[in-house]
Fold threonine synthase.
Amino acid sequence: MSESEMRYFSTRGGSETLSFEDAVLTGLAPNGGLYIPTHIPSLPADWQTKWASLSFPELSREILSLFIPTSVIPSKDLSQIINTAYSTFRSEKTTPLRQTGEKEYVLELWHGPTWAFKDVALQFLGELFRYFLERRNGKLEKEGKEEREELTVVGATSGDTGSAAIYGLRSKPSITIFILYPDGRISPIQEAQMATVPDENVYCVAVQDSDFDTCQSIVKTLFSDKEFNSTHRLGAINSINWARILAQIVYYFSAYFQLPESARAEGAKVQFSVPTGNFGDILAGWFAKRLGLPMDHLVVATNENDILDRFFRTGRYEAGEEVSSSSQAPETAAVNGSSDGQQATPSSGSSVKSTHSPAMDILLSSNFERLLYYLALDTLEIPSGDAEQDRARAQEHLNGWMAELKKNGKVNLGERIKEAAGRDFWSERVSDGQTLEEIRKYYQLPKYGPYVVDPHTAVGLAATERSQKKAPNSYWVTLSTAHPAKFSSAVELALSAKQFPEFNFRETVLPEELKKLEQLEKRVHKINGEAGVRELIERVKKGEKVVPGEGKGSI
Ligand SMILES: *Cc1c(COP(=O)(O)O)cnc(C)c1O
């Protein structure tokens, strides 16, 4: 394999390749595809010994530099970006591994500023944006030019992504961030996390009399308004951005090195179970495997929005029957759909179901397209051996599938693809009832407990349990994607006072840092409709000081 300088190309075709910088700043390819690397790099021959005692930031630098040429970011700068990004984490190990059974572990990914796993990627992406913009503007200044590059990030959220994005971008020069959410329809703790951030470049926009779909469609309209978009240089920070996937590869390696030595011995098997929505987190795991991390399988753990589970069982990718209607659309799907037109609209009239694990309530998983590309490539009837030719053929397959998906809301990928996918993935669907049951179980865990887990993590744990018979004697790592305090309603429902009178959420689960938010001032811009949002962005970008309505509230 040639190890020429790494570039990025679109899953949907075209022979054009982009630098890492352009791929990150562009996000979604103009042809609707997602950027992937021109080749999968090789690990250094001695990585198992050389990397074993590295800190998380050091490990991150080793892995990321395989994908980011030094001509794009010099090593010293990359180290600095990474160190700054992860200095905000509360745990010394950044993503610590916690033992929950004899050979069972939970990888806690929520020790960052917003207590959910999206911080791992968004703290890094924020620093990366700052670095690229500073460098571009420094160059303009040197050339004696007047103009400066600025980024206006606009996104809609129903909770998690919004706060992680705000914490990733707060106080970054040349970046302004507007996060839209339906007024009164997100949890108080989620609103407090966003609205108490005092930085001048952060705007929390509560859209009045709206639901999530309305916020999403406002963002979509702004992005597709060519003049508005280019005037303000709109930026999206959704999970289809390659830098987000890249940053997440690191914790799979980190988990591996935190396991006991016996897990790394010859013949030992390690399995990872991943609560999955948009397929970003688990795709990073797949890249880790592809790079050479010895893992046996990745378990796709879905909630009742189970399009992925059905794909891995049947080879058919389809939105499915109408399950229920919900006004609270998923932020994962929506942030993508709204800001970059990524989500195809299925014609079958299906809709997302609201579950106890809302961050995984999705109709279609946008990052799944990246896996589909590799499945197409790996199953080419007669590979030519010529990288570019094979790439073009895989892109052609993928384009056909995406077109069919867009047209009919479903696509049958067939046995070959299903089998190829089955080599790396198992899957499980976990119902709401089972999710609550799992939270109760871990609260009552003997020996390694009690352990209060959030509902997304509970989905992953249930999937682990069910998969165990497929590979006895394996080591199991379940990814924990949020702190239980972020999803208090499900946790309190599972551990109700009637059944667990001794359980006190405020005392034992809610961290001091989150309690303190109650005391802080909230800055929320209450806005009416698209025109209001447009006006706010225009006034802010003109340099006007727009004062938000302020007030205190309790969590
Ligand atoms: C976003 C999110 C997920 C889903 O991750 P994907 O990368 O979209 O699959 C799971 N759990 C929590 C808490 C999340 O915020």
The chain has 22 helices and 16 strands. Residues 116-118, 160, 239, 275-281, 332, 359-360, 456, 481-482 surround pyridoxal-5'-phosphate (CB under 6 Å).
